[in-house]
Structure formats: structure tokens, C-alpha cells
Amino acid sequence: MTNRTLTVRELGRATLARQHLLRRSDLSTAEMLEHLIGLQAQAPEPPYFALWTRIRGFTPDRLSDLIASREVVRIALMRGTVFAVTAPDALALRSWMQPLLTRALRTDTQHAAGLAGIDHTALSDFAAELVRHEPRTGQELGRLLAERFPGYEPGALAYAVRGLLPLVQVPPRGLWGRSGLPRLALLDHWVGRGGESLPPLAPEPVALVRRYLAAFGPASARDAQAWSGLTGLGEIFDALRPDLTVFRDENGVELFDLPDAPRPDPATPAPVRILAQYDNVLLSHADRTRLVSDADRRRLVTKNGIVHAAVLVGGTVAGSVRRTTTRRSAVLEVTPWRRLTNANRSAIEAEGMRLLKFSAPGADDREVRILPEAH
Questions:
Q1: 359 contacts 53 by C-beta, under 8 angstroms
Q2: I want to staple 360 with a disulfide (CB 3.0 to 4.6 A). Which of 88, 112, 182, 330 is the partner?
């Protein structure tokens, strides 16, 4: 046990190492998803770009095939947001997140008032039968539920069952190059074998917190709560304290870590990396300054919750990224938020061109544009 102070730079290098953003990994797609405890996936494409920037030689079919074969699913989990996770992780995590999702039914400003007085058990039982053998869109669910529960708004009813039931978004949603409205099915039935449902796995909060530290540490209990959306995790950290190494950050906040987890020398070079939209590494700490300044964080996340793709230079966010593709061309525009050296620009152009070759292999023209610095 130690109370040594870790600098912001040390914390950043440790997190980058665990996220495989210092060096690309040879892990398989499923192994990476399990290590990261899933990837945020409310839009279909971001998980592909998040994996590309972390796995050497990653190709889109590696994730698409796992989704098509039901080994990876898209489901609401941490923070009530859709994640792409392996089927075993979905079965374990979904029940751990249930208190968060149930609480949202009471606090959601758009739908809570419209759900007052409804019988949650009757609602979830009826909805489960509707999706058990035929995946349904949210609109279809809302319409059918409103027939059974008159007086309630269809949109509110569909929102409620997404919180009450473990529902996955089934393909073609989430497949590379495909599109379609999210259609929902029961998790246990979707990933079962031979048409038989699988029971949910009992969550193991202690093991999940250790996995969080392996992918995002060193971290505080508040960091883990920001990652998950759950409260009361301090008790789990206290229970783990004898098995963890304890540090402090520059503000004196207590940080926990696995004793043998990588904590690279702060002088370790950090290459340019392009992070996907909604990349979870930027959203999984209460204090995010290890990778993005407070001022830049406000530019990174819009008021309506969109998280821009970003470029890391020297280990921290240096600007936003926007990709535009047509049938024959692909353009990557980078808006810097600080002054870039000529070496920085060359590295961004090289990494950006690799991303365009990955995402638009059939394009005749590819271009990386570094725009004027934004103030």
C-alpha cells in the first residue's frame, strides 16, 4: 500500500496503456471488448472506429460477424447508454445496472410523469411476450403496449420497457455498412442456444470493479460511479482496499489500482490516436483531466449529449475530428484546439489517412484536412 501522489501525466499514461492507445494490441475483438467492458454504441459505427484505433489490423467484419452470430450484443448498460458487449458480459452487467435503469423511470424529465401509476410487473410481462419470438421496433412496441394500457403515451411505454427488460438491438442494426431502425429482442432468448433462453448471470460487483480498474485505473470510487452510473461503490472499494495499491492525485483524492497493472513512465511517448465518437475512455472518470482539460471537455460534449470524435496528441485531446464520405471520396477534417507543431501535423495526417483507408477502402480520393486552430 502507498499514498504516493500520481501526476495528471502519470494517470494519463497509465490509462492510455490499459486502453491499448500507446501501442495497438493483438487481442481478438472479443478479448478487447471484454477487457474494455464494452464500447459505447448508441450509434452503429463508433465501436468499429474504437476497435480500429486499438487493435492492430482490425477489419470491420471482425465485429460484424460477432454481432451477426449473437456473440456480441448491443444493449443499454452503463449510464443507461447502449453498449456493444460480449453476450456473457451482457448477461452479467444488465442485472447489475437494473437499479440505475429503474431509477431513470422515476427521474426522466420527458417520460416519468407519463408513467405515474403504471404496474411495472404487468407492463414488463406483457412486453416480454411481444418481443419473445419477434423483434419489435420501439414504435411498434409503443403502439401495441398502448392498446393494452390505454391512457399512457406509446413513447413513454416503449421507454419504460427498455428500462424494465433486458432488450438487445438485433441485426442488421450495428452491422458495418448496414442500416435500419433498432429492433428489440429479449437478451436471454436472443443469445440462448437451440431457442432456449439463458438465465442471467449473477453480477459480481467486486470482480467488475477490478475489471474497471484494469481498463481505466488508477481511479477513485467517484470515477467508477461516473463510469457505471451507479452509486454506493465506495463500499466495494473499501472491501477491496487490502488487495489494492492506493495513491492520491494532485488534488489529494484517493485513487485505487491493481498492484500489477501497468503504470508507464510519464516520459513514455504517446502517439497520435483518433478516438471514435462517444469513446468511453473520455467518459469513464469523474475527473477527466488525465486525458482532456475541463475547457476542452466542454467543447467535446455538446449540450444534447453528442460526444465528438477526437484526436489525441501527446496523450491528451488536442481537437475534434469529423469524417465525411461519399461514394468516391473520403475527407477527414481535424479542428485543433491548441497549436500544433509540424511534427504533430504530419503525424495526424498519417494517422488520419490510415483511418480513411480503413473506413473507405473503395474511395478514389482521400484527404486529411487540418483546419485553423479554434479558439
A1: no
A2: 330
Rounded Cα gap, residues 60 and 64, in angstroms: 6
> 216, 223 in Cβ contact below 8 A?
yes
Distance separating the N- and C-terminal Cα atoms of the chain: 43
- CA distances, 201 to each of 42, 82, 90, 167 (Å): 24, 19, 9, 15
Calpha distance 347→325 (Å, rounded):
22
Task: Over range 115-128, report the average pLDDT.
Answer: 91
- What grid cell was written down for 323? 469524417
Bridge partners for 83 per DSSP: 40, 75
The DSSP bridge pattern shows strands 329-336 and 365-370 to be: parallel
* Among 352, 362, 313, residue whose Cα is nearest residue 331: 352
What are the Cα distances from residue 167, in Å, to 113, 130, 154, 156, 321?
Answer: 23, 12, 17, 16, 32
What would the grid cell of residue 43 be?
450509434
Strands 167-170, 72-76: parallel, antiparallel or unpaired by DSSP?
antiparallel
Q: Which amino acid is at 168?
A: V
Using alpha carbons, list the distances in angstroms from residue 173 to 68, 74, 218, 324.
Answer: 10, 9, 35, 21
Average pLDDT of the chain, as a whole number = 93
Whole-prediction pTM value? 0.94
Lowest-confidence region among 191-195, 212-216, 262-266: 191-195
Q: Which residues pair with 168 in a beta bridge?
A: 75, 185
